[in-house]
Amino acid sequence: MSSPLSPPTLKAGIILLDPVTTQLARIVVLQYNPDQLTRTLQVQATSGESGDRSEALRLKGPPVETFKLEAEIDATDQLETAEPNYTVVDVGIFPQLAALESLITPSSAQLYEADALLRAGAVEIAPMEAPLALFVWSTQRVVPVRITEFSITEEAFDVALNPIRAKVSLGMRVLSVNDLGFDHRGGKLFMAYLKNKEALAQRECSGSLEQLGLKALP
């Protein structure tokens, strides 16, 4: 058991911003921090192995970074202390799951609006725009992302078949200035994320040739 004087453990989560105004729309906090976070960075080089030799060290932009995690949602603790008529008693963890699904689902209002435009004979209908999602994993990592993978495994249910325990697998692709531009709110957040990584890299002490078994470069 942690000491009362121990600092509180921060939660990971996703912040949703309105795609037009970029104002805060919703905060989805993960109930438990995942035990593992997988990161993949795909280098954006200007040429392949057979490319121009003069381009061998050139980069087109920041690497394409992706995150993968598995989050658990469990109503057990809440059911033990819940008052009658409390949300968990009534509908289990449906609200938490619905909040996560809203990351990739157009709202009913957007669908009605698109249908109305179609019925009115609109020649061209712009695709519905999702909220700008910011993945938050500590104060060092606040980055705009697009959800690329989403799956839910419901593992336990109450007597009314409401899910009370589930695992959610999320795949996310970081949105860089190549995707959003420098003037977009998300592009500015990406640049802040990149600058912070540069600052963290500066805090790492440089090694020496002796540590590598070398006295000088060949």
Features:
7 strands, globular, 218 residues, seven-stranded antiparallel sheet, alpha+beta, single chain
What does this structure look like?
The protein is an alpha+beta fold. It has one domain. Helices cover 24% and strands 28% of the residues. The protein is built from six helices and seven strands, in the order E-E-E-E-H-H-H-H-E-E-E-H-H. The chain has helices at 76-81, 87-91, 94-101, 108-119, 177-180, 185-202, and strands at residues 13-17, 24-29, 37-42, 64-74, 132-136, 142-157, 163-174. A seven-stranded antiparallel sheet has the order 2-1-5-6-7-4-3. Strand 6 and strand 7 form a beta hairpin.
Q: What is the average per-residue confidence, as pLDDT, rounded to a whole number?
A: 88
Give, in order, the helices and strands.
Answer: EEEEHHHHEEEHH
Uncertain runs are: none
Task: Find the count of extended strands (DSSP E, 2+ residues).
Answer: 7
The total of helices stands at 6
- The termini sit apart by 55 Å
Estimate the strand proportion. Answer: 25-35%
Strand order of the largest sheet: 2-1-5-6-7-4-3
Broad structural category? alpha+beta
The biggest sheet, with number of strands, parallel, antiparallel or mixed sense and barrel status, is:
7 strands, antiparallel
Shape: globular
Radius of gyration: 23 Å
* Share of helix, binned: 10-25%
Into how many domains do the coordinates divide?
1
